[in-house]
Amino acid sequence: MKNGLVIADSGPIFSLALANKLHVLDALFDDVKIPEAVWAEICLDKTTSFYSRIYDYFKARVQKVKGFNELTVVMDFGESEAVMLYKELGADFLLLDDKKARNIAENFGMKCVGTIGILSLAKDKGLIEELRPIFETFLLNKRYYSIELLNTVLIQKGENSLDGI
User: Fold this and answer.
1) If 0-12 CB within 10 Å is exposed, 13-18 middle and 19+ buried, where does residue 52 land?
2) Is 160 exposed, middle or buried (0-12, 13-18, 19+ CB in 10 A)?
3) pTM of the full structure
4) Secondary structure in 3-state letters for 103-145
5) Residues 138, 97 contacting (CB under 8 angstroms)
6) Burial category of 39 from C-beta neighbours within 10 Å (exposed 0-12, middle 13-18, buried 19 and up)
7) pLDDT by residue (tens digit) across 52-63?
8) Kind of pairing between the strands at 31-35 and 112-113
């Protein structure tokens, strides 16, 4: 059983694309959408090695936010539009890594999940064999996740920690 509709912010998109794991979203959710502001953010740098993965995956998943965006004073434009689109579409989850934006969304009663949560669930479902190489890729490419969080997840999943990095 899949988990309904997820609205994604750009941070998790970049991380999943870097690790070549965007496909796990299709395995875990019935549908994935992004607001136009997130599309603009992910299309800014077309020179990355993973840009074509992002473009191909999301080009038909962009939705226009209908309401007025009053949240830009408390979070960035992409995050605020993702929150609004979640509300407008009655989404089931918001894929968001930024701690401040996530706290705000959760205060609105939204169910949030982050990149590490998605990858952890994907491992539980047998979609990913090992998390450690993915986490190493994140660290080597300046994707900012807490080493403590990454190691906690690795230990929970029976993998070696990242202490040597």
Assistant:
1) exposed
2) exposed
3) 0.90
4) HHHHHCCCCEECHHHHHHHHHHCCCCCCCHHHHHHHHHCCCCC
5) no
6) buried
7) 999 999 999 999
8) unpaired
Q: CB burial class (10 A; 0-12, 13-18, 19+) of residue 7?
A: buried
Q: What are the tens digits of pLDDT across the range 6-21?
A: 999 999 999 999 999 9
**Residue (of 8, 16, 6, 4) closest to 81 by Cα position:** 8
Place of tokens 């090695």: 49
Strand partners, 33: 7
User: What Cα–Cα distance (Å) separates residue 146 from each residue in 14, 97, 101, 114, 157?
Assistant: 17, 11, 17, 13, 17
Six-digit token string for 49: 């090695």
